[in-house]
Amino acid sequence: MRAGRIKSVRQARRVRRVRKKISGTPQRPRLAVSRSHRSIHAQVIDDSSGRTLCAVSSQGKELRGQIGSYGGNQQAAAVVGKALGEKARALGIETICFDRRGRKYHGRIKALAEAAREAGLKF
Questions:
Q1: SS3 of residue 100 by DSSP
Q2: Does 3.30.420.100 match the CATH number of domain 3-118?
Q3: Pick from 78, 83, 7, 76: which is nearest to 39 by CA?
Q4: What span, in angstroms and rounded, lies between the C-alpha atoms of 9 and 15?
Q5: Which pTM does this prediction carry?
Q6: Phi and psi for 96 in degrees, rounded to 5?
Q7: Which of 8, 37, 43, 86 has a CA positioned 20 to 30 A from the CA of residue 56?
Q8: Which residues does residue 30 pair with via DSSP β-bridges, in sequence order?
Q9: What is the pLDDT of residues 54-108, one digit of tens each?
Q10: C-alpha angle 74/119/32, rounded to 5°?
Q11: What order of strands is seen across the sheet that includes strand 40-46?
């Protein structure tokens, strides 16, 4: 097996293991964060109804002016986190459970989470 394949299998295993324990409810939806080399995406999900309540991406039109051409750094993640926090607060969402999708809590994931906290979300 190639090293990249093994790494993705391990991450998928971590995602499944964490998702057994974390589930979004209408009172406390789940904030799922996914990232690639060039972008970062975050969405607030109510798992009981299977609906995405709000989503923000570093590739979205509303944030492109603030981020610039490259959305794969910590500054872009902080902008996405702040925008998602404001969007969720406008919908009346105050508390969430954080799903980092099998990634370590550092770098871009941490920057997004801290910006969402500064915007008023509790988790």
A1: coil
A2: yes
A3: 76
A4: 10
A5: 0.90
A6: -140, 165
A7: 8
A8: 45, 97
A9: 999 999 888 988 888 888 899 999 999 999 999 999 999 999 999 999 999 999 9
A10: 60
A11: 51-57, 40-46, 30-35, 97-99
